[in-house]
From TrEMBL:
<feature type="transmembrane region" description="Helical">
    <location>
        <begin position="187"/>
        <end position="204"/>
    </location>
</feature>
<feature type="transmembrane region" description="Helical">
    <location>
        <begin position="306"/>
        <end position="324"/>
    </location>
</feature>
<dbReference type="InterPro" id="IPR017871">
    <property type="entry name" value="ABC_transporter-like_CS"/>
</dbReference>
<dbReference type="InterPro" id="IPR036640">
    <property type="entry name" value="ABC1_TM_sf"/>
</dbReference>
<keyword id="KW-1133">Transmembrane helix</keyword>
<dbReference type="GO" id="GO:0015421">
    <property type="term" value="F:ABC-type oligopeptide transporter activity"/>
</dbReference>
<feature type="transmembrane region" description="Helical">
    <location>
        <begin position="267"/>
        <end position="286"/>
    </location>
</feature>
<dbReference type="Pfam" id="PF00664">
    <property type="entry name" value="ABC_membrane"/>
</dbReference>
<keyword id="KW-0812">Transmembrane</keyword>
<feature type="domain" description="ABC transporter">
    <location>
        <begin position="364"/>
        <end position="600"/>
    </location>
</feature>
<dbReference type="InterPro" id="IPR011527">
    <property type="entry name" value="ABC1_TM_dom"/>
</dbReference>
<keyword id="KW-0472">Membrane</keyword>
<keyword id="KW-0067">ATP-binding</keyword>
<protein>
    <submittedName>
        <fullName>ABC transporter related</fullName>
    </submittedName>
</protein>
<dbReference type="InterPro" id="IPR003593">
    <property type="entry name" value="AAA+_ATPase"/>
</dbReference>
<dbReference type="InterPro" id="IPR027417">
    <property type="entry name" value="P-loop_NTPase"/>
</dbReference>
<keyword id="KW-0547">Nucleotide-binding</keyword>
Length: 606
């Protein structure tokens, strides 16, 4: 097994080559179906190219016999001289060249298109999988499905299948040919091969197990790289560069150890095949020489026989390796199919003809909502949450860290299923809405805005991908983002993200607000940033938020006193329950209330 970078999930159980796993793996072939004509042409060319290869030793035998004064006689009685036979060989090789080119051409097309379709299907599946899936599986492991597992399948369609077909035909046709040349010698030859095959299979099994171990170790090293590079700020802030380097080195050492062990067996396998194979050839040649000496065989037949034997031997040797490849492919295709079989969120249901688009007013009603995260089912995060909001009202959620505020708003988007209770929007259970349509009416301004690599224009238009320039500019103006955008020489085309300029926290928030304004949702979720901005930036953000909240039902996870003061109702959350609710004035006057205490801590002291 090489260590070229394939990252397989160490948690995936090893797949044995059984009838069932084979049947399962073959399901990946449905992606080949659209290209079946090309595939069939490729297979025909492959068969033809195999046939020309198999004809070669036979004609060489005839050439040798012609050299020994036994010209080849055609069925019509014409005798072919050495020159003609040699020309025949040339023609065969020419055809072989043409067929091989065609086979590669067609198989490459099939594999490229098939792999594109599989990747596309996987990606579409990824983005429609429910959030809990991503919490239960590591992103690195998921992405390796779309890279290395699909790559494995690509190898199969472009190379392994052809190889497998060729080896098997060589084995079968070769055996038939040698039988035609000399039954006695063939039986002798065949008696020497089964033991080699059996031993090769045993070796193959062992190698496979070790190869899997190498891949697992490699996957672990890749996880370290991914995690630490993603969190490079944390690594540096904790000055853990050396610690991480050591961790990575230790993991690499394990990979090398596993790879060396696996390759020791591979080396053994190769030398075993060489010794076994050539030993077998020597035995067969010895027997053949005896037959020729006794006049029971011609030199030409012996030549053909020897060449076929080499072909057969090589294909037996190659089969061991192919067996391993087929297994990896089955494993890879099973992992891919497993993901494709995962249930998606019920998004993007096609609307039935004649039904008007969903209208949302924005009344929200939480009724006895209880919830635990699927990754920690025994830890109730929300317990019996009930509140209602009239359309257009502004609700502030406040409470200590970990109280469950973000969880409350995530449930409105239906990122998770409730453990108990109901959430109603406009008096209707959210589960009865079309998920895509419903989410289309909810806007969100998160605490940390994720800007995608690209222009500011693209980032704002993320709220409405078909927005016109005028709409985008208008949204940027309302979101108080226009001042800084227009100060950049490239304006809306300024590139942000990894390869572009870095926007400040306040600027990013205003882009997010412009994005939400463009989306124009009935319901708004605002997660205020805890980090304070300078007062000018704060004012710009605040004004933009006020503009955004106009005439919309808004739920704000509030950290700013100014927001809280303006809220129609404040819900104080603690330990997954609403412990107090009311307006700012009422709550702040209740001496021993949590709200009054929080206020003191959070605002007055600062
Ligand atoms: N994806 C998740 N999987 C499992 N547990 C989670 C997840 N997200 C949050 N939790 C847990 O749920 C509880 C509530 O978290 P939540 O983020 O809702 O709190 P919060 O009130 O918004 O806190 P903060 O103000 O710090 O953001 C916490 O104990 C947290 O550890």
């Amino acid at each position: 097994m090489n260590t070229s970078g394939s990252t397989l999930d160490p948690d995936v159980p090893k797949k044995k080559l059984t009838k069932e796993s084979f049947r399962q793996g073959l399901r990946i072939f449905r992606y080949v179906l659209p290209y079946r004509t090309k595939f069939i042409i490729g297979m025909v060319l492959l068969a033809l190219s195999s046939a020309t290869v198999m004809a070669f030793p036979w004609v060489i035998g005839k050439l040798t016999d012609a050299a020994n004064g036994r010209p080849f006689v055609l069925p019509n009685g014409d005798a072919l001289t050495i020159d003609y036979i040699a020309i025949g060989l040339f023609v065969i090789i020419l055809f072989q060249g043409v067929f091989s080119f065609g086979r590669i051409w067609f198989f490459t097309q099939v594999s490229e298109f098939t792999v594109r379709d599989i990747r596309q299907a996987l990606y579409r599946k990824f983005v429609t999988l429910p959030i809990p899936y991503f919490e239960k599986n590591r992103v690195g492991a998921i992405t390796s499905r779309i890279t290395s597992d699909v790559g494995q399948i690509q190898d199969t369609f472009s190379l392994t299948l052809a190889e497998l077909f060729r080896q098997i035909t060589t084995l079968i046709v070769g055996t038939v040919f040698i039988m035609m040349v000399s039954v006695k010698l063939s039986l002798f030859m065949l008696a020497t091969f089964p033991p080699i095959v059996l031993l090769a299979m045993f070796f193959g099994r062992k190698i496979r197990i070790l190869a899997k171990a190498t891949q697992d170790e490699l996957a672990k090293t890749n996880v370290i790289v991914e995690e630490t590079l993603q969190g490079i700020n944390t690594v540096k802030a904790f000055t853990n560069e050396q610690f991480e380097t050591n961790r990575y080195t230790a993991s690499l050492t394990n990979t090398v150890r596993a790879a060396l062990r696996s390759n020791r067996y591979r080396g053994g396998f190769v030398s075993f095949v060489i010794v076994g194979l050539f030993g077998g050839i020597i035995l067969v040649l010895w027997r053949a020489a005896t037959l020729v000496a006794a006049g029971q065989m011609t030199i030409g037949d012996l030549t053909s026989f020897a060449l076929y034997t080499i072909f057969i031997g090589a294909s037996v040797g190659g089969l061991g390796e192919l067996y391993g490849k087929v297994q990896s492919t089955l494993g890879a295709s099973e992992r891919i199919l497993e993901i494709l079989d995962e249930p998606s969120e019920p998004t993007h249901r096609p609307r039935m003809a004649g039904i008007a688009p969903l209208q949302v007013r924005g009344d929200i009603d939480y009724q006895n909502v209880a919830f635990s995260y699927p990754t920690r089912p025994d830890l109730p995060v929300l317990k019996d949450i009930s509140f209602d909001i009239q359309a257009g009202e502004k609700i502030a959620l406040v409470g200590p860290s970990g109280a469950g505020k973000s969880t409350i708003v995530q449930l409105l988007m239906q990122f998770y299923e409730l453990s108990a209770g109901k959430i109603l929007i406009d008096g209707r259970d959210v589960r009865l809405f079309d998920l895509t349509e419903l989410r289309g009416h909810i806007g969100i301004v998160p605490q940390e805005t994720l800007l995608f690599g690209g222009s500011i224009r693209e980032n704002i238009a993320y709220g409405k991908t078909d927005a016109t320039d005028a709409e985008i500019t208008e949204a940027a103006r309302k979101g108080n983002a226009w001042q800084f955008i227009s100060s950049f020489p490239e304006g809306l085309d300024t590139v942000v993200g990894e390869r572009g300029i870095k926007l400040s926290g306040g600027q990013r928030q205003r882009v997010a607000i412009a994005r939400a304004i463009l989306k124009n949702p009935a319901i708004l979720i605002l997660d205020e940033a805890t980090s304070s901005l300078d007062s000018e930036s704060e004012k710009l953000v605040q004004d933009a938020m006020d503009e955004l909240m106009k005439d919309r039902t808004s739920i704000i996870i509030a950290h700013r006193l100014s927001t809280i003061r303006k809220a129609d109702k404040i819900l104080v959350i603690d330990g997954g329950r609403i412990v107090e609710q009311g307006r700012h004035e009422e709550l702040s006057n209740s001496e021993n209330g949590l709200y009054a205490n929080l206020l003191k801590l959070q605002f007055e002291l600062s």
